[in-house]
Write a structure and sequence with these properties.
Number of helices: 13
Structural class: alpha/beta
Largest sheet: 8 strands, parallel
Order of helices and strands: EHEHHHHEHEHEHEHEHEHHEEH
Distance between the termini: 75 Å
Strand order of the largest sheet: 3-2-1-8-7-6-5-4
Helix content: 25-40%
Number of strands: 10
Shape: elongated
């Protein structure tokens, strides 16, 4: 088994690329063959990590727990949430081939635990990091248990007030203070881009001094690209092989071509951000020669003449003396005859 090439302890450090998590979630529909195809699709799209969900249905939801409205739209309305989850839960044995397939592809294998038993399972499997879902942000004992494992934590913050995030961060810090990334998130499936409030990432970063990212539930890829432009060091996005498949999350997921477009777009955006230093790009050199202007002789200038402004025209090309040098030349005498149209140089004139 080849280890993942992704170092999750360095996520958010300066110079590190954005971590792109392909969220397979429960889009495997309980079918391991489909789950493995999802891993392969994520690899082909260029994702850094694939994430599933690990839970025990009876510990996650009571028998009377209702389904969310978005789940009712794409699953049997007569089926309880617990019954739906039972069809979608992964056993310990199910995790092993998924991990192996991810590692062989050089991707990180991640899964979100939804209960303490599942948290222990993922720890025993040696996962490199823990992705904590938004629903657990008000569950301090769960957060402390995760923090005590010492693994990097990526914490989604959907549905939460800043004060709730503060309490969650404090619980994690007090229980071991592992590396922590906070993902801004809107927990609606799909969510309206107008609800994204991406500037909240800056609020989280400023409030807690932690790296921040974006867990995207909008349709399309635009908000994820905007999040990277605003500084997201992690982007998480649901994907599926076919949005028309039955299941709670397929309709709010990208298909493989969309996931590949997301990866390409993120890499373009982060390459465009640069280092912030204002300087000419190497690619501008030829344009500068053509588009900028130089000091040129407006007429024939005879040797011995003192240069005046009337003798000079500022015009292209730009590979002569910059117009900003004019004050240095005014009043100097020509050391030689200078034909009209010549690019002026310091050698054309006597020293002051």
């Amino acid at each position: 088994m080849t280890a993942s090439t992704v170092d999750l302890r360095r996520v958010g450090e300066p110079g590190q690329p954005c971590l792109i998590i392909a969220e397979a979630g429960v889009n495997h529909n309980g079918d391991m063959a489909l789950a493995l195809k999802l891993v392969d699709a994520a690899r082909q799209a260029g994702a850094d990590a694939v994430k599933f969900q690990t839970f025990k249905a009876s510990l996650l939801a009571s028998r009377s727990a209702p389904k969310a409205a978005y789940q009712l739209r794409s699953t049997d309305a007569g089926e309880s949430q617990q019954a739906m989850l039972e069809r979608l839960q992964l056993s310990r044995a199910d995790h092993l081939p998924l991990m192996e397939r991810c590692h062989a592809a050089g991707m990180a294998f991640l899964s979100s635990p939804f209960d303490l038993e599942s948290l222990a399972l993922l720890d025993s499997l040696g996962l490199p990091a823990l992705k904590i879902p938004s629903g657990e942000i008000t569950n301090p004992e769960f957060l402390k248990a995760a923090a005590r494992l010492g693994k990097p934590i990526i914490l989604s913050t959907g549905m939460s007030w800043l004060g709730e995030v503060e309490a969650a961060v404090r619980a994690i810090e007090d229980a071991g203070n592992p590396p922590l990334v906070l993902l801004h998130c809107v927990s609606a499936y799909p969510s309206d881009p107008a609800d994204s409030n991406l500037r909240a990432m800056e609020t989280l970063a400023r409030a807690f001094g932690k790296p921040v990212g974006w867990s995207d539930h909008t349709m399309g890829i635009e908000t994820s690209l905007a999040a990277v432009a605003l500084g997201a060091c992690v982007v998480e996005k649901h994907f599926t092989l076919d949005c028309s498949m039955p299941g709670p999350d397929h309709r709010a997921s990208l298909e493989p071509d969309g996931l590949a477009a997301l990866v390409r777009g993120v890499r373009i955006v982060e390459s465009a951000l640069g280092d912030g230093l204002k300087r000419p790009a190497r690619s501008e050199a030829d344009t500068a020669r053509v588009a900028r202007k130089s000091l040129t002789a407006a007429r024939d200038i005879r040797a011995g003449e003192a240069l005046s402004g009337a003798m000079v025209l500022v015009r292209r090309p730009g590979d002569g003396l910059s117009p900003s040098s004019l004050e240095l030349l005014l009043g100097r005498r020509a050391a030689q005859d200078i034909p009209e149209g010549s690019l002026l140089s310091l050698d054309h004139f006597t020293k002051p």
